[in-house]
Amino acid sequence: MENAQLLELANKYGSPLYVYDTAKIASQYNRLTGAFNGVKNLKLNYAVKALSNINILKVLKNLGAGLDTVSHQEVQLGLTTGIDPKNIIYTPNGVSLQEIEEVAKLGVQINIDNLSILEQFGQKHPNIPVCVRINPHIMAGGNSKISVGHIDSKFGISIHQVPHIQRVVENTGMNINGIHMHTGSDILDIDTFLRASEILFDVAKQFKNIDFIDFGSGFKVPYKEGDISTDIEQLGVQLSERFNQFCKEYGKEITLMFEPGKFLVSEAGVFLAKVNVVKQTTSTVFAHVDSGFNHLVRPMMYDSYHRISNISNETGRDRYYSVVGYICETDTFGSNRRIAEISEEDILCFHNAGAYCFSMASNYNSRYLPAEVMVHEGKDYLIRKRQTIQDILHNQEIIDLKPSTKKASVSA
Ligand SMILES: *Cc1c(COP(=O)(O)O)cnc(C)c1O
Predict the structure, then answer these.
(1) Is 328 a catalytic residue?
(2) Are residues 253 and 287 located together in one domain of the fold?
(3) 190-204 and 232-250 helices cross at what angle (nearest 10)?
(4) How many distinct structural domains can be found in the chain?
(5) What is the pLDDT of residues 316-325, one digit of tens each?
């Protein structure tokens, strides 16, 4: 998307604003399917939590993706797109048996990540096939909050407990139809991925009725210039060959699944915010925008880097800025950034804002959630209106209690 077009959108819809480009989503989807075209049955399930606007879900459905969901509500969002529940996988962590049963009733593929619920579910519903999430105990992931496959991680059933899974299967008569792992976002190199995959093949061999192996996600995308990203094409060549060999040994053409979020939508999104104030202190020039960690929390929560550019002054002379928000806590988007000279009312563009940005936004400070716009074949579509005060008040019951104003007597 060109800066001129983004500026126009900020003018038309106001700021702050999220903008998504369907062409980028499609090219990422096609790149991933292309890398694995050597595999007969490939299924990409888009991780809804990355960006859950139903219009984005529809775009992905129309591209041929299934959906990876982590809550009953994400399943419900998915179903509103008209997607076949068979194309949804439900991969929660630590949810109640009751929630899993509700989702199973909808016909969605269930993925269970602990022995206790697996056994209870198997006893009550031996006829519903279930996938199990395995923890391969491989250290991966860009930082400790998003690295979820290591030995003391809360996710998945340990590979050392596979005999327990088999005992549950024998005792309940349930059927394990899939093996899953998700080792964490931001996998740095494909060797780690391939090592974890070997562990999954090993587990899969131990079950008779496997229909699919789900390798999760964790594909890294570049956030700044020079960032290394997952070499998808190389991974495609190596994993496809290994997967096809596994199918031969197993005696069945099973499905290879992935569930990428960030890879599909991160680079497709930008966040636009207006500069309220430029404040020069003795050490720093702050650019305060009309947003904060209520709208984009990744820099504050994960120390994530989002490139920031001044689309109102593309050709201006670079200066150093700390870009901060309006929240009454420190909310630094980036410190000491070289950005084309910023004036008040300029529009700043935060890049890579498609994944885990809007979907993690909140109403903190009672600010409105931003509007969302989707650009498709040169046309812009409002896909979420900016909130109003009615949205903030919605669901609040108004009662008017009168606490006593009598002063407490001081006891001796
Ligand atoms: C979050 C998540 C994903 C998506 O991860 P990305 O890094 O966004 O690709 C996939 N699978 C599971 C189970 C997840 O929790």
Answers:
(1) yes
(2) no
(3) 10
(4) 2
(5) 999 999 999 9
